[in-house]
Design brief:
Elements lengths: L6 H14 L5 E7 L10 H6 L4 E6 L6 H12 L4 E6 L4 H14 L11 E7 L5 H9 L18 E3 L4 E4 L3 E2 L7 H10 L9 H15 L1 H8 L8 H11 L11 H13 L20
The site of guanosine-5'-diphosphate (GDP) has 19 residues, from helix 5.
Length: about 280
Protein backbone atom coordinates (compact mmCIF):
# COMPACT_ATOMS: atom_id res chain seq x y z
CA UNK A 1 0.00 0.00 0.00
CA UNK A 2 1.34 3.39 -0.92
CA UNK A 3 0.49 6.27 1.34
CA UNK A 4 -0.99 9.42 -0.12
CA UNK A 5 0.88 12.30 1.54
CA UNK A 6 -0.51 15.17 -0.50
CA UNK A 7 -4.13 15.80 0.50
CA UNK A 8 -3.49 19.03 2.40
CA UNK A 9 -1.63 20.62 -0.51
CA UNK A 10 -3.89 19.66 -3.38
CA UNK A 11 -6.53 22.34 -3.11
CA UNK A 12 -3.98 25.13 -2.77
CA UNK A 13 -1.83 23.86 -5.65
CA UNK A 14 -4.86 23.61 -7.90
CA UNK A 15 -5.94 27.14 -7.00
CA UNK A 16 -2.48 28.53 -7.69
CA UNK A 17 -2.31 26.96 -11.13
CA UNK A 18 -5.87 28.06 -11.96
CA UNK A 19 -4.99 31.61 -10.88
CA UNK A 20 -1.80 31.75 -12.98
CA UNK A 21 -3.26 30.20 -16.15
CA UNK A 22 -5.09 33.22 -17.61
CA UNK A 23 -1.69 34.91 -17.98
CA UNK A 24 -0.07 31.87 -19.61
CA UNK A 25 0.02 31.11 -23.36
CA UNK A 26 1.71 27.74 -23.22
CA UNK A 27 1.90 25.02 -20.61
CA UNK A 28 4.95 22.82 -20.53
CA UNK A 29 3.84 19.68 -18.73
CA UNK A 30 6.85 17.72 -17.57
CA UNK A 31 6.32 13.97 -17.49
CA UNK A 32 8.68 11.11 -16.77
CA UNK A 33 9.31 9.41 -20.12
CA UNK A 34 9.37 6.04 -18.34
CA UNK A 35 5.86 6.48 -16.93
CA UNK A 36 3.96 9.17 -18.81
CA UNK A 37 0.56 8.09 -17.46
CA UNK A 38 1.38 7.84 -13.77
CA UNK A 39 3.60 10.92 -13.75
CA UNK A 40 0.71 13.02 -15.09
CA UNK A 41 -2.11 14.46 -13.09
CA UNK A 42 -5.38 14.75 -15.07
CA UNK A 43 -6.27 17.89 -13.12
CA UNK A 44 -3.96 19.81 -15.46
CA UNK A 45 -5.92 18.74 -18.55
CA UNK A 46 -9.05 19.88 -16.75
CA UNK A 47 -7.54 23.24 -15.77
CA UNK A 48 -5.88 24.03 -19.09
CA UNK A 49 -8.98 23.35 -21.25
CA UNK A 50 -7.73 23.90 -24.82
CA UNK A 51 -4.64 25.99 -24.02
CA UNK A 52 -1.59 24.77 -25.99
CA UNK A 53 0.43 22.22 -24.07
CA UNK A 54 3.76 20.57 -24.69
CA UNK A 55 4.19 17.21 -23.01
CA UNK A 56 7.86 16.96 -22.17
CA UNK A 57 8.92 13.33 -21.91
CA UNK A 58 11.80 14.04 -19.59
CA UNK A 59 14.56 11.68 -18.48
CA UNK A 60 14.52 10.16 -21.94
CA UNK A 61 18.07 8.98 -21.22
CA UNK A 62 16.54 6.43 -18.81
CA UNK A 63 13.61 5.35 -21.00
CA UNK A 64 13.31 2.87 -23.85
CA UNK A 65 13.71 4.90 -27.06
CA UNK A 66 11.25 2.84 -29.10
CA UNK A 67 8.54 3.23 -26.46
CA UNK A 68 9.23 6.96 -26.10
CA UNK A 69 8.73 7.38 -29.84
CA UNK A 70 5.37 5.61 -29.50
CA UNK A 71 4.40 8.04 -26.75
CA UNK A 72 5.27 11.03 -28.93
CA UNK A 73 3.01 9.69 -31.69
CA UNK A 74 0.28 9.02 -29.15
CA UNK A 75 0.32 12.51 -27.60
CA UNK A 76 0.73 14.31 -30.93
CA UNK A 77 -2.72 13.01 -31.90
CA UNK A 78 -4.30 15.05 -29.08
CA UNK A 79 -5.83 18.45 -29.67
CA UNK A 80 -3.43 21.38 -29.13
CA UNK A 81 -0.80 19.04 -27.73
CA UNK A 82 2.73 18.27 -28.90
CA UNK A 83 5.19 15.95 -27.24
CA UNK A 84 8.96 16.12 -27.13
CA UNK A 85 11.40 13.73 -25.45
CA UNK A 86 14.33 15.37 -23.73
CA UNK A 87 16.92 15.54 -21.00
CA UNK A 88 16.21 18.58 -18.86
CA UNK A 89 19.87 19.44 -18.34
CA UNK A 90 20.63 19.74 -22.03
CA UNK A 91 20.65 23.22 -23.49
CA UNK A 92 19.95 21.74 -26.93
CA UNK A 93 16.78 20.10 -25.59
CA UNK A 94 15.57 23.37 -24.07
CA UNK A 95 16.13 25.20 -27.36
CA UNK A 96 14.16 22.58 -29.30
CA UNK A 97 11.41 22.86 -26.74
CA UNK A 98 11.16 26.65 -27.05
CA UNK A 99 11.20 26.40 -30.83
CA UNK A 100 8.24 24.00 -30.65
CA UNK A 101 6.50 26.38 -28.24
CA UNK A 102 6.83 29.31 -30.64
CA UNK A 103 5.39 27.11 -33.40
CA UNK A 104 2.40 26.15 -31.26
CA UNK A 105 1.53 29.75 -30.33
CA UNK A 106 1.87 31.79 -33.52
CA UNK A 107 2.35 35.51 -33.12
CA UNK A 108 4.19 35.27 -29.84
CA UNK A 109 7.69 34.55 -28.67
CA UNK A 110 9.73 36.21 -31.37
CA UNK A 111 11.58 39.45 -30.70
CA UNK A 112 9.45 42.39 -31.65
CA UNK A 113 6.22 40.45 -31.12
CA UNK A 114 4.34 39.82 -27.89
CA UNK A 115 6.21 37.54 -25.50
CA UNK A 116 5.33 33.88 -25.14
CA UNK A 117 4.27 33.34 -21.53
CA UNK A 118 5.20 29.88 -20.35
CA UNK A 119 4.47 27.82 -17.27
CA UNK A 120 6.27 24.60 -16.45
CA UNK A 121 4.10 22.17 -14.50
CA UNK A 122 4.36 18.64 -13.17
CA UNK A 123 4.57 16.39 -10.14
CA UNK A 124 7.62 16.50 -7.84
CA UNK A 125 10.90 15.05 -9.09
CA UNK A 126 10.07 14.91 -12.79
CA UNK A 127 12.69 17.57 -13.52
CA UNK A 128 10.73 20.84 -13.59
CA UNK A 129 13.38 22.89 -11.78
CA UNK A 130 16.17 21.42 -13.86
CA UNK A 131 14.30 22.32 -17.04
CA UNK A 132 13.48 25.85 -15.84
CA UNK A 133 17.15 26.44 -15.03
CA UNK A 134 18.26 25.12 -18.41
CA UNK A 135 15.76 27.29 -20.24
CA UNK A 136 16.81 30.33 -18.21
CA UNK A 137 20.51 29.55 -18.68
CA UNK A 138 21.02 30.07 -14.96
CA UNK A 139 19.84 28.79 -11.62
CA UNK A 140 16.46 30.28 -10.80
CA UNK A 141 14.59 27.22 -9.50
CA UNK A 142 15.79 24.88 -6.79
CA UNK A 143 16.62 21.37 -8.02
CA UNK A 144 15.92 18.34 -5.87
CA UNK A 145 13.58 20.32 -3.67
CA UNK A 146 11.25 18.45 -1.40
CA UNK A 147 7.62 18.75 -2.46
CA UNK A 148 6.50 22.17 -1.33
CA UNK A 149 3.98 24.75 -2.25
CA UNK A 150 5.26 27.75 -4.09
CA UNK A 151 4.06 31.03 -2.73
CA UNK A 152 4.58 33.60 -5.43
CA UNK A 153 4.58 33.49 -9.20
CA UNK A 154 7.15 35.72 -10.86
CA UNK A 155 7.89 35.79 -14.53
CA UNK A 156 11.43 35.83 -15.78
CA UNK A 157 12.26 37.45 -19.11
CA UNK A 158 14.55 35.06 -20.97
CA UNK A 159 15.35 37.89 -23.41
CA UNK A 160 14.45 35.75 -26.39
CA UNK A 161 10.75 36.49 -26.50
CA UNK A 162 9.95 34.08 -23.69
CA UNK A 163 8.50 34.98 -20.30
CA UNK A 164 8.90 32.06 -17.94
CA UNK A 165 7.24 31.48 -14.59
CA UNK A 166 10.19 31.09 -12.24
CA UNK A 167 8.29 28.68 -10.01
CA UNK A 168 6.83 25.50 -11.41
CA UNK A 169 3.15 24.65 -11.28
CA UNK A 170 3.28 21.88 -8.76
CA UNK A 171 0.94 18.97 -9.33
CA UNK A 172 0.62 16.04 -6.98
CA UNK A 173 1.07 12.42 -7.97
CA UNK A 174 -2.11 10.39 -8.24
CA UNK A 175 -1.70 7.39 -6.01
CA UNK A 176 -5.13 5.79 -6.17
CA UNK A 177 -4.14 3.36 -8.90
CA UNK A 178 -1.85 0.74 -7.37
CA UNK A 179 0.15 -0.08 -10.50
CA UNK A 180 0.70 3.62 -11.21
CA UNK A 181 1.68 4.30 -7.62
CA UNK A 182 4.19 1.46 -7.84
CA UNK A 183 5.67 2.93 -11.02
CA UNK A 184 6.04 6.28 -9.28
CA UNK A 185 7.72 4.60 -6.32
CA UNK A 186 10.05 2.60 -8.59
CA UNK A 187 11.02 5.76 -10.50
CA UNK A 188 11.93 7.60 -7.30
CA UNK A 189 9.12 10.17 -7.61
CA UNK A 190 7.73 9.53 -4.16
CA UNK A 191 9.51 9.44 -0.80
CA UNK A 192 10.77 6.11 0.51
CA UNK A 193 8.74 6.38 3.70
CA UNK A 194 5.54 6.17 1.71
CA UNK A 195 5.94 2.62 0.42
CA UNK A 196 7.30 -0.82 1.17
CA UNK A 197 10.61 -1.10 -0.69
CA UNK A 198 10.59 -4.90 -1.01
CA UNK A 199 7.05 -5.11 -2.39
CA UNK A 200 7.76 -2.35 -4.92
CA UNK A 201 10.98 -4.11 -6.00
CA UNK A 202 9.29 -7.52 -6.33
CA UNK A 203 6.38 -6.08 -8.35
CA UNK A 204 8.78 -4.14 -10.59
CA UNK A 205 10.88 -7.25 -11.17
CA UNK A 206 7.68 -9.05 -12.22
CA UNK A 207 7.06 -6.35 -14.83
CA UNK A 208 10.63 -6.32 -16.07
CA UNK A 209 10.68 -10.14 -16.28
CA UNK A 210 7.87 -9.81 -18.81
CA UNK A 211 9.07 -6.78 -20.78
CA UNK A 212 12.87 -6.66 -20.38
CA UNK A 213 13.97 -10.17 -19.28
CA UNK A 214 17.32 -9.94 -21.06
CA UNK A 215 18.29 -6.67 -19.37
CA UNK A 216 17.61 -8.27 -15.98
CA UNK A 217 19.60 -11.38 -16.88
CA UNK A 218 22.53 -9.36 -18.21
CA UNK A 219 22.74 -6.93 -15.29
CA UNK A 220 22.62 -9.62 -12.61
CA UNK A 221 24.38 -12.35 -14.58
CA UNK A 222 21.45 -14.73 -14.34
CA UNK A 223 21.53 -17.45 -17.03
CA UNK A 224 17.78 -17.90 -16.47
CA UNK A 225 15.33 -15.93 -14.39
CA UNK A 226 14.28 -17.82 -11.25
CA UNK A 227 10.64 -18.90 -11.15
CA UNK A 228 9.16 -16.10 -9.04
CA UNK A 229 10.01 -12.41 -8.75
CA UNK A 230 10.72 -12.85 -5.05
CA UNK A 231 13.28 -15.51 -6.00
CA UNK A 232 14.82 -13.12 -8.55
CA UNK A 233 15.23 -10.50 -5.83
CA UNK A 234 16.76 -13.09 -3.50
CA UNK A 235 19.20 -14.10 -6.21
CA UNK A 236 20.13 -10.45 -6.84
CA UNK A 237 20.73 -10.05 -3.09
CA UNK A 238 22.86 -13.19 -2.95
CA UNK A 239 24.97 -12.16 -5.92
CA UNK A 240 25.48 -8.66 -4.56
CA UNK A 241 26.30 -9.71 -1.00
CA UNK A 242 23.14 -8.30 0.62
CA UNK A 243 23.23 -10.88 3.39
CA UNK A 244 22.43 -11.01 7.08
CA UNK A 245 24.41 -13.11 9.53
CA UNK A 246 23.76 -16.77 8.83
CA UNK A 247 23.92 -16.20 5.10
CA UNK A 248 20.25 -15.33 4.56
CA UNK A 249 19.48 -12.65 1.98
CA UNK A 250 18.60 -9.23 3.36
CA UNK A 251 15.61 -8.62 1.09
CA UNK A 252 15.22 -4.98 2.07
CA UNK A 253 18.83 -4.19 1.14
CA UNK A 254 18.53 -6.18 -2.08
CA UNK A 255 15.36 -4.23 -2.94
CA UNK A 256 17.09 -0.90 -2.24
CA UNK A 257 20.02 -1.90 -4.43
CA UNK A 258 17.76 -3.05 -7.26
CA UNK A 259 15.64 0.13 -7.20
CA UNK A 260 18.73 2.36 -7.02
CA UNK A 261 20.23 0.63 -10.05
CA UNK A 262 16.94 0.88 -11.91
CA UNK A 263 16.70 4.64 -11.21
CA UNK A 264 20.31 5.20 -12.21
CA UNK A 265 19.69 3.47 -15.54
CA UNK A 266 22.23 0.74 -14.71
CA UNK A 267 19.89 -2.08 -15.69
CA UNK A 268 19.26 -0.40 -19.01
CA UNK A 269 16.84 1.98 -20.64
CA UNK A 270 13.49 0.89 -19.34
CA UNK A 271 9.96 2.17 -19.85
CA UNK A 272 7.40 1.12 -17.30
CA UNK A 273 4.38 2.29 -19.27
CA UNK A 274 3.42 2.03 -22.92
CA UNK A 275 0.70 3.74 -24.89
CA UNK A 276 -2.46 1.69 -25.44
CA UNK A 277 -2.09 -0.89 -28.22
CA UNK A 278 1.72 -1.00 -28.08
CA UNK A 279 3.03 -4.58 -27.85
CA UNK A 280 5.14 -5.15 -24.73
CA UNK A 281 8.67 -6.49 -24.77
CA UNK A 282 11.41 -4.81 -26.70
CA UNK A 283 14.67 -6.30 -25.45
P1 LIG B 1 11.36 18.85 -9.81
O1 LIG B 1 11.00 18.40 -8.43
O2 LIG B 1 10.30 18.46 -10.81
O3 LIG B 1 11.72 20.31 -9.91
O4 LIG B 1 12.62 17.99 -10.26
P2 LIG B 1 14.18 18.39 -10.23
O5 LIG B 1 14.50 19.33 -11.34
O6 LIG B 1 14.51 18.80 -8.84
O7 LIG B 1 14.84 16.99 -10.61
C1 LIG B 1 14.65 15.82 -9.81
C2 LIG B 1 15.83 14.90 -10.03
O8 LIG B 1 15.79 14.38 -11.38
C3 LIG B 1 17.18 15.58 -9.88
O9 LIG B 1 18.05 14.67 -9.24
C4 LIG B 1 17.63 15.83 -11.31
O10 LIG B 1 19.03 15.88 -11.46
C5 LIG B 1 17.05 14.60 -12.03
N1 LIG B 1 16.79 14.88 -13.46
C6 LIG B 1 16.13 15.92 -13.99
N2 LIG B 1 16.08 15.81 -15.34
C7 LIG B 1 16.71 14.66 -15.67
C8 LIG B 1 16.96 13.98 -16.92
O11 LIG B 1 16.60 14.41 -18.02
N3 LIG B 1 17.62 12.78 -16.83
C9 LIG B 1 18.03 12.26 -15.64
N4 LIG B 1 18.67 11.09 -15.67
N5 LIG B 1 17.83 12.88 -14.46
C10 LIG B 1 17.17 14.06 -14.47
Amino acid sequence: MIIDWYPGHMKKAKEQIAEALPKIDLIIEVLDARLPVSSANPILAYLRRDKPCIKVLNKQDLADDAVTREWVRYFDRQQNVSAIPLEAKERRSANALLKLGRKMVPGRGIRGLKPLRVMVAGIPNVGKSTLINTMAGKKIARVGDKPAITTCHQQVDLRNGILLNDTPGLLWPKLDDQAGARHLAASGAIGENAYDTSSVAVATIAELSASYPNLLKQRYKLPELPETSQMVLEEIGRRRGCLVSGGEVDLHRAAELFLRELRDGKIGRISLERPPMTPSGTD
